[in-house]
Amino acid sequence: MWHGLKSAGTLDERVQRGLDARQRVPHDAHTDLYRSQVRPDPLKLVLEQDQDRIPALIGVRHERMAKNVHSYLRGSDVVMAADLAVTPVSEIHVQACGDVDACTFGYYRSPDGDAVFDLGYFDETLRAPWEWDVKRMAVAMVLAMRVADAPSKDQRAVARAAVDGYRRGMAWAADHDRLNLWFAGLPEPEVARAVDKSARRQKDLAFTDEPMLYADMVEQDGTAPRLRHSAPVYALTDWLYEQDAVLVHEGLIDVMSAYFTSVSPEVQQMLTEYRIADVAMLVRGVSDVGLRTFVVLLQGTRRHELVALQVKEARQSVLQPYVLPEFRHRGNQARRIALGQALIQSEPDPLLGFSRWRDRDYFFSQLRPVVTSYQRMGPEAMPRYARLCGFALARAHAVTGDRIAIDAYLGDSDSFPKAVARYAVRYADLVESDYSQFAKHVGEAPTTG
Questions:
Q1: Which in 114, 257, 307, 344 has the greatest CB count within 10 A?
Q2: Which of these three, 304, 334, 366, is where a domain ends?
């Protein structure tokens, strides 16, 4: 999963590495879409991802993707991965998120109870060029603004703000000692600068009004807690045939046993006091729809001692065909996600783990509320939010890549943010075209499920 530098080198050598990369790939080169390459059919790539998903949910996935062009981007990461593969890169690699989006960032509750702003989606994580994440982030910001009917100049401004936040974040990280950076969260002044007073109050209230809190998610049936079947939590039989639902319910005991061995000894000891109280299906988001994703409710000694685990099917990363051979993951794909998240997040979930059952890999994590701040902000606040997202992405890249070389490559000017902002607007136009093709297909396709 993690590949250390063969030789970290001195400070001067690492700075020179970044400067040499800038000579090979100047900032202006990042405006190019490389459309001269033979581009795969985007509709075909998207539809190929439907293979082996739960049939009854494929129509739901298509419907959510067809909602608007931003939703389409969220569900078509396989297309942008192919397009990014033919863009110029500096050949400096990090543990990439692989599916960065405006909705990827948000607040979640850390193990010690604090609200932390960070990335929150890692299904596509793999070691890859850092530019791929940055460009996808910029494109996502442009499309989020388009959905909000923002003028063109504001779309480009938000993309530029996101990339400038990344540049500033990498400069901040380059000034930190390695060990201190590993444990450092985002500087509080950065968060305060990005989030206004109203949004900060929303953050403070976030974990009391989230619909996924246990009080709303669980109902007591006598003395036994049960998961309440209300979207996005469903009974297994809502989407699976009766025999398949029975198989899943019984098989999750085996899945949990294998998961148990993937966590640390102290977590294993803690989990010995819990038993499986209930199981349900989870259907949320866009790109995940149709994957086998479950909620396992664990109960401790007392009625109120509850832990909800998300058990999600893991597939090969969309980046896999395009990264260097030594970075391709050929083992358990859920292990790839668990280790990638542990590397990227400043305060990862201690219950991260993985398992395998009936030839499928499953990724385990706590089902904890994540407040997507972007959905709570108007277009006027988006530049501040985008800058914070860029800063958070830089911190994630800095702990798994050569932050000194990336900082030297970016430099002190705004030429890189300007170049990527131009790319983002141009690529967003391409996504609009792909979306029209997809929406037309969905409109013509027969109703399913």
A1: 344
A2: 366
Closest CA to 390 of 128, 97, 174, 168: 168
Q: Is residue 120 part of a domain?
A: yes
Provide the pLDDT confidence category of residue 208 given band limits of 50, 70 and 90: very low
Structure confidence at residue 61 (pLDDT): 97
Dihedral sign (CA 285, 286, 288, 293): positive
Interatomic CA distance for residues 202 and 199, integer angstroms? 5
Question: Per the domain annotation, does 208 fall within a domain?
Answer: no
Q: Which domain holds residue 324?
A: 214-366
Q: How far, in Å, CA of 265 to CA of 274, rounded?
A: 15
pLDDT of 376 reads 60
193/145 same-domain check: yes
The answer to whether residue 379 is domain-embedded is yes
C-alpha span between 174 and 321 (Å, rounded): 31
pTM of the model: 0.92
Do 263 and 404 belong to one domain?
A: no
Sequence-ordered list of residues with C-beta below 8 angstroms from that of 169, at least 6 positions apart, any chain: 190, 390, 391, 392, 393, 394, 395, 398
pLDDT category at 212 given cuts 50, 70, 90 is very low
Q: What is the mean pLDDT of residues 102-118?
A: 79
Q: 2 forms bridges with which residues in the sheet? A: none
> Which of the listed residues 325, 346, 366 is the one where a domain comes to its end?
366
Write out pLDDT tens, residues 153-182.
999 999 999 999 999 999 999 999 888 888
- Cα pseudo-dihedral 392, 396, 402, 406, rounded to 10: -30
Residue 317's nearest CA partner among 298, 295, 332, 297 is 332
Taking alpha carbons only, the member of 349, 204, 226 closest to residue 296 is 226
Report the C-alpha gap between 434 and 16 in whole angstroms: 40
Q: How many domains does the chain have?
A: 2
